[in-house]
Amino acid sequence: MGDNHAFASWKSASDPSVGNYTLGVDPDGAPQIIIWEHRKRRWRSGQWNSVIFTGVPDTANLASFAYGFRLSPPESDGTMYFTYSPANPSDLLRFRIRWDGHEEQLIWSEGNKSWTVMQRQPDDECELYNHCGDFGVCNKLESPKCRCMDGFVPKHVEQWNRGNWSDGCVRRTKLQCERNSSVAGQNGGSEDGFKRFKCMKLPDSADVVTPRQSESCEKRCLQNCSCTAYAEITGIGCMIWSGNLVDVQEFNKDPSTLLLHIRLADSELGGKRAISNAVIIVVVVVGSFVLAISAWLFWRFKGELEALCKDSPISCCKSSKVKITDPSSREFSMDLSGLSEGFVIDGSQVNSADLPMYNFNAVAAATDNFSEENKLGQGGFGPVYKGKLPGGQDIAVKRLSRKSGQGDEEFKNEIIMIAKLQHRSLVRLLGCCIEGEEKMLLYEYMPNKSLDFFLFDPEKQGLLDWTKRFSIIEGIARGLLYLHRDSRLRIIHRDLKASNILLDEEMNPKISDFGMARIFGGNQNEANTVRVVGTYGYMSPEYAMEGLFSIKSDVYSFGVLLLEIVTGRRNTSFRTTDYSSLIGYAWQLWKEGKAMDLIDPKIWESRSSVDNDYFSEVHDTSEVLLEAKGASI
């Protein structure tokens, strides 16, 4: 009934009077969450489709982690509202609009007696409302971040090139219905059409309509000259946009197969042109002549081609399989890639001496064309395959999924980081492949998978006696020390956890996955970010809550990992107990003088085969860990 309830921000961090920002529901069209700065829109969540907010691709991940959104049906007085229910009823959640205009969702950590930020919006320039202007598209991974939609050009080119995108873009070619008031398709013009775009945050200010029976959403849009785009979204229906398209963002993964159809002139779609019979005859004759000459040349030099194929590193004749040569040769590692001198990625030069480049066909052959039998697993980056180089060396190939949102950035980051690092406790990067849309990283193969594969499996835990666990702890510590102090670059890993510790054939640990790592300068001790990445439960409080990270952040994660190794339990396995986490459980036992209760029973079971010094070492290590933990608290 016109009464819109909203959250109001504080005036400042210490002044609780009403501030400049409000957060509430915009009921027009498909409802969405809006942050206003006074009356001006600052950020929006995108339309609600009964599953996610279409402008927040990670909504589904957050929902499975903590809560579920649902839109209640309109009541008799026209009221509608959003509600949420924690996945775990014992979890305490809250939402707030900060004094600086950021929306946050927080969860209470009983162990730390503090609130932890689960998500924050906006966390990037592209999420600011209409950052690239009308008919502009923002992509945070591109440089520059703004570009015009296909069929549009900057309204003011000079300002656009200087990075001032506020005026947006305009059509390059007028629509047929704009050029002629008569029905499209008459008086010498071709009918307008639509170009389909995926992975887009749908524009603002859409009208949700119900087409008449046997009438499509596309036809409904074509009948109205002011209609500039349409979309048919499950859970919403037919959405029509009139006028300018505003606040459009391009994602690097498609959260719910969102397809936006933008109206363009026929010529922008590669419009059809009348072709005379004479032109058709000429094309056919010339094509036939070229085909005949090609066939004759192939027959004439067939013998030479076959001889060449036998010596070529790539099979080019009969076999679909790829023959590859010694990976140390220039033919395999460099010449075939076309990047023998290295390449520049995000401003950093990566030389072929630091990181060999591999040809796609060669990597495909090494993994048996990425067969399911060779698939080792699936991560946020994409699938990982086992392969074998011609010399017999086993490799693991991490292939960037084209649907992955985080993979592109992780790929670049990992190349820059790992290519310049060498240590026995770090997974060795053997090379990479960049060819077309394909991006892959080649690592040394770890036959014993990751630490969590053994540590949290009741049947395999017994294989990790205290000697092995202590050796793993020591190896991780050496790798971390190298990253923080001894390498040419000071590296903060930011995602240290059991699944990122790989084990070789002798169960030696190697730190992997540097996609989220950051390089620190020589005199730099800490940094701040609005984009908190990593795994909850392993994040230090100052990083999770304030985005502040340093080498201490990795040390905190290392401490959590040590507790997991000693106890054989996941940090998250305590959510359904009286303790919020393994840290809270360990701290309580320490205060009660029961620290030895932490030790994995699988270690105690092997007591008869070891001496008392063995368990003295376990006890001493547990005390050191808990004392360090207590000091940090």
Automatic annotation (TrEMBL):
A single Gene Ontology MF term assigned here is:
ATP binding
Report the Pfam families cross-referenced here.
PAN_2 (PF08276), PK_Tyr_Ser-Thr (PF07714), S_locus_glycop (PF00954)
Q: Where, per UniProt, does this protein localize?
A: Cell membrane
Q: What class of enzyme is it?
A: transferase
Q: Carries keyword Nucleotide-binding?
A: yes
* Biological processes annotated in GO: recognition of pollen
Q: Which SUPFAM superfamilies match?
A: Protein kinase-like (PK-like) (SSF56112)
Show where the Protein kinase domain sits.
370-633
GO cellular component terms given for this protein: plasma membrane
**Which ranges carry the Apple domain?**
177-264
Name the domain of life: Eukaryota
Does the entry feature the keyword Cell inner membrane, yes or no? no
Q: How does it sit in the membrane?
A: Single-pass type I membrane protein
Q: Which reaction does it catalyse?
A: L-seryl-[protein] + ATP = O-phospho-L-seryl-[protein] + ADP + H(+); L-threonyl-[protein] + ATP = O-phospho-L-threonyl-[protein] + ADP + H(+)
Keyword terms of this UniProt record: ATP-binding, Cell membrane, Disulfide bond, EGF-like domain, Glycoprotein, Kinase, Lectin, Membrane, Nucleotide-binding, Receptor, Serine/threonine-protein kinase, Signal, Transferase, Transmembrane, Transmembrane helix
Q: Which residues cross the membrane?
A: 278-299
Q: Write down the EC number.
A: 2.7.11.1
Task: Please report the stretch or stretches of sequence annotated as the EGF-like domain.
Answer: 122-158
Q: Which InterPro entries match?
A: EGF, Kinase-like_dom_sf, Pan_app, Prot_kinase_dom, S_locus_glycoprot_dom, Ser-Thr/Tyr_kinase_cat_dom, Ser/Thr_kinase_AS
Q: What is this protein called?
A: non-specific serine/threonine protein kinase
